[in-house]
Design a protein that fits this description.
The complex is a heterodimer of chains A (about 800) and B (about 110). Helix content of chain A is about 30%, strand content about 20%. Chain A is built from 25 helices and 40 strands. In chain A, helix 14 crosses helix 16, helix 22 crosses helix 24 and helix 22 crosses helix 25. The longest helix of chain A has 18 residues. The model of chain A has no long low-confidence stretch (mean pLDDT about 90). Chain B starts with 10 loop residues before the first strand and ends with a strand. In chain B, about 45% of the residues are buried. The N terminus of chain B is likely disordered. Classes of the chains: A alpha/beta (about 800), B mainly beta (about 110).
């Protein structure tokens, strides 16, 4: 078996052939093993996963275990089906019984003037993403040609990096192949709300270039123009058919295949975006799986037929929920519109069967409707079906319903895997079945199925040490029962941390918390940031953030900071979101000397610890201030600093509900109101945006501080390691938190907080005088500018 | 690497006492930066630069037999140098030993 092409199609064919007795050779043109192209947008967003390696569909060992011979960066130049020989670009001949063309497609680029100018990109592979990301750093205005699924995702990704972005679309509505005019009319304003301007019915006639040759904008057929120094072309795909054509196979737009996926030669098949079946070239993932399954059956001598696929699409743009499947319009359709929420839900009916669905703003029941469309189920009352879909839970889905459209996994497969493997967490189900390993949008359904199978029992807790399957509770039990005081003692007692070591920082936190910071500290159990008390950067240098309580500083401090920046030629000085000053690009060896000259304590900006308390100017200067936010902020920060936590804790104190210090979106936020203080907890404004829950309202700043400290200690004792306050609160519920923090246990929480605080190191930067380990800030062959003990020190 | 680049003799690279248990420190050997680790039962040495994105492996989290890069958590065996998830290239392993408190390295 020769599989030509290392995309999702080539991978799907290998997966389908797995278990059949045949030797497989996989030839990939790109330097990577098959990866998940569907999620390229994630690379473009610059978030995790940050590297194409993290998108690999299977690790290298998977191919090795199955004896699949993989040739990377290899192209087949010639296919001779008669002699059953393929010739690579380097002249090597590979024999085959059957060849499957999975050559995919390239971005379709129209023959526009200056389309090859610098600044013009297509959006197709990881290289494109990297280039677009780099260009977005410096671009002033971006334009995306093409208002389809891919174009919208690219535009949103660029706009979210702060570049004003316009989508230019030829047709009179966005996503015209998937949406009817009504839904499209709702989509455009939703995109504009996300910062993506939409221009419809604009035919791009050519690209304008600046005198230096770089692209400068678009010229439209109606004479208009649009300035843009970053242009992305996303108007569709062009199947890769050069090899098929050179090999004498019948080619139309794609390689022509029959229902068995066989091309015009019986020994050559084609699957995926390079194949044309009944006049249709599919450019999305779900049909590829279905085609690969039929191709594998054909090759192994079984009869199977591919009858086309129901196209379905989910827009992966945060803040816009959109699902579309089947045909967008027909003579008979019903639509529900919720004027209050702006949601739009529509079913398309043909001959008494559902043939299409559009769900916008409310995608509940998408899986159920997709299943009805796929199975061509008759429908008597479409409105009743829509209502049913709104209520549908995973339990109502038939076993045959496809839950994961990226990897083609049915409900039945997932349920069987949960039962057979005794799986206990969504994470495990995803790993075993690969459902949810694609775009991830079906993960809630996977979790729901798991919950049903577990009879409503909660998911198995996350393991603190996954290698030894030990939960936080189990390890904590050992620590308490045996009086363990260090990570090595835990490792000796139960093995946790010995295999991969990833859980050691979690173990270190756990033992420190249980022992009230009177544990035995071992630096090997700490992440590098906590060994050198600075945040490691992408080039191996570190960043230095001194403590400035409440974000308040002085001329004297600023002068010292400026002197340090000059003396050590620090390449970047940055004001952080937490109202601090960050010195970036510091080599490890310079840390002790810089701390000494700054003469300020550590800001703990590198640790899973109490970070900052932001404040607004409050009653000291503000006309509107109701409470002294600066004084309370500094007091709260002083009380909390130096304490380590399961994950970072960001706080704010703001002097009135105008919320200038952004207290509503902090882990702990205090807000002055008429006659008292509100305490908010579990807020977030990072990758998750969540307004905190109001824990309670109290009369005095002293009481507010007390509640905040009780909450901090409760979180320190109860949350899983690496669980932020907002995930913790969503897991256990705000009522449970209220009961713990505001109830009778409050005094004991405050007492245990006091014990931990008393033993916490308020300033680890003092290790400049007494390094905790030999060469703490050095390499074997480097010398730090070490600072001697402070004058008059006893030690 | 050509044979010429391989050192045939052991080079003294520093004092054993300067590397704490289950930690690493790096050292320059010719054109190569090497990370040396103290394990529960001896020593290990691999290339210092992570092949994924250039992270400093000597600053990684060390367990009994592997190290995790501090930048993106790629994990490498300290015995074979292989990347543990098999999804990318590994690192070169070198010979290291302790003699009278002195660490000696042979680049392989």
């Amino acid at each position: 078996m020769l599989v030509i092409g290392g995309g999702i199609a080539g991978q799907a064919v290998c997966e389908q052939l797995d278990g059949h007795a045949c030797a497989i050779t996989l030839v990939c043109g790109e330097p990577h093993l098959p990866y998940d192209r569907v999620n390229l947008g994630r690379l473009l967003k610059g978030a995790e996963p940050a590297n194409v390696e993290d998108l690999l569909l299977r690790p290298a060992t998977w191919y090795a275990d199955r004896g699949i011979e993989v040739h990377l960066e290899t192209w087949i130049e010639q296919l001779d089906p008669e002699r059953r020989l393929a010739t690579t670009h380097s002249g090597t001949e590979i024999p085959f019984d059957y060849a499957v063309l999975c050559t995919g497609s390239t971005a379709l680029v129209p023959p526009l003037a200056n389309v090859a100018a610098p600044g013009v990109h297509v959006f197709r592979d990881p290289g494109d993403c990297a280039e677009i990301l780099a260009a977005a750093q410096t671009a002033d205005r971006a334009a995306v040609i093409g208002g389809g699924l891919l174009g919208l995702e690219a535009a949103h990704a660029i706009a979210s990096r702060g570049v004003p972005t316009t989508v230019v679309h030829l047709m009179d509505r966005l996503m015209e192949r998937q949406l009817d005019p009504d839904a499209a009319a709702l989509l455009a304003p939703a995109m504009e709300e996300l910062g993506v301007e939409v221009l419809l019915e604009r035919r791009t006639q050519g690209l304008l270039v600046n005198p230096d040759g770089h692209v400068g904008g678009l010229a439209f057929a109606d004479g208009g123009r649009l300035d843009a120094d970053l242009v992305v072309v996303a108007i569709g795909i062009r199947p890769h058919v050069d090899l098929a054509r050179a090999s004498g196979l019948a080619v139309n737009r794609g390689v022509v295949v029959d229902d068995r996926l066989i091309s015009s030669h019986p020994r050559v098949l084609a699957v995926g975006e390079c194949a044309e079946h009944r006049g249709v070239v599919h450019g999305i993932v779900a049909p590829i799986r279905e085609q690969a399954a039929v191709a594998a059956a054909t090759i192994s001598g079984h009869s199977a037929a591919y009858a086309g696929s129901i196209p379905s699409a989910k827009l992966k743009v945060m803040g816009v929920e959109l699902f579309a499947a089947g045909e967008p319009d027909a003579d008979h359709a019903v639509a529900l519109r919720n004027a209050e929420t702006g949601a739009y839900r529509k079913l398309v009916i043909r001959d008494g069967r559902v043939t299409g669905a559009i769900l916008m703003g409310d995608t509940r029941g998408a899986d159920l409707l997709l299943d009805r469309i796929r199975t061509r189920a008759p429908v008597e009352d479409p409105l009743a079906l829509l209502a049913e879909a709104s209520q549908a839970s995973a339990e109502d889905l038939p076993d045959s319903a496809q839950v994961c459209n990226c990897n083609g996994v049915c409900k039945g497969t997932i349920v069987a895997a949960i039962r057979a493997g005794g799986l206990g967490s969504t994470q495990e189900v995803v790993a075993v079945t690969r459902a949810g390993a694609g775009c991830g949008s079906c993960k809630p359904v996977v979790s729901e199925l798991l919950a049903i199978e577990r009879g409503g029992a909660g998911e198995e807790p996350a393991y603190l040490c996954p290698c030894r399957k030990l939960t936080r509770e189990q390890v904590a039990g050992r620590v308490r029962a045996d009086g363990l005081e260090s990570v090595s003692e835990i490792a000796q007692a139960c093995g946790a941390g010995r295999d991969c070591g990833a859980c050691k920082p979690g173990l270190a936190y756990l033992v420190s918390e249980i022992c009230g910071n009177r544990h035995r500290e071992e630096r090997h159990a700490r992440f590098i940031n906590d060994r050198v008390h600075a945040n490691i950067q992408n080039d191996g240098t570190f960043s230095v953030v001194p403590r400035m309580r409440g974000g308040v500083t002085s001329a004297d401090e600023l002068r010292r900071i400026a002197d340090v920046v000059d003396k050590y030629e620090i390449p970047m000085v940055k004001v952080t979101g937490g109202q601090r000053i960050d010195l970036l690009g510091v080599p490890k060896e310079q840390l002790p000397a810089i701390w000494e000259e700054l003469g300020m304590p550590s800001g703990h900006a590198y640790a899973k610890a109490v970070r900052t308390v932001k404040t607004c100017v409050g009653t000291d200067f503000c006309r509107f201030g109701l409470g002294n936010s600066i004084a309370l902020g500094i007091e709260l920060e002083t009380a909390m600093e130096g304490l380590y936590t399961p994950h970072k804790v960001k706080s704010a104190v703001t002097g009135c509900p105008r919320n200038c210090a952004e207290a509503y979106v902090k882990d702990i936020g205090l807000v002055a109101v008429e006659g008292g203080w509100e305490i908010y907890v579990g807020g977030a404004a990072g990758s998750t945006v969540r307004k905190g829950d109001r824990l309670t309202t109290v009369a005095s700043p002293e009481a507010a501080k007390r509640v905040a400290l009780a909450f901090l200690q409760h979180y320190r004792e109860s949350a899983e390691y690496l669980e932020r306050t907002y995930t913790y609160i969503e897991r256990v519920g705000i009522d449970a938190v209220r009961a713990a923090v505001l109830g009778e246990g409050q005094a004991e929480l405050i007492e245990r907080y006091g014990i931990a605080k008393a033993a916490a190191d308020p300033d680890p930067w003092r290790e400049r005088h007494h390094p905790a380990t030999p060469k703490q800030f050095e390499e074997l062959d480097t010398e730090a500018m070490l600072v001697g003990p402070p004058a008059g020190a006893a030690r | 690497m050509s044979l010429l680049e391989q050192s045939v003799t052991w080079l003294a690279i520093g004092r054993a006492q300067d590397i704490p248990p289950l930690e690493g420190r790096s050292v320059q050997v010719g054109e190569r930066r090497v990370a040396v680790f103290r394990l529960p039962d001896g020593w290990a040495a691999i290339d210092h630069v992570c092949p994924h994105a250039g992270g400093p492996l000597a600053d990684g989290m060390v367990s009994d037999a592997c190290v995790t890069c501090p930048l993106h958590a790629q994990r490498f065996s300290l015995i074979t140098g292989e990347r543990q998830d098999g999804a990318g290239p590994g690192v070169r392993v070198h010979a290291v030993r302790e003699r009278d408190g002195v660490l000696e390295l042979r680049v392989l």
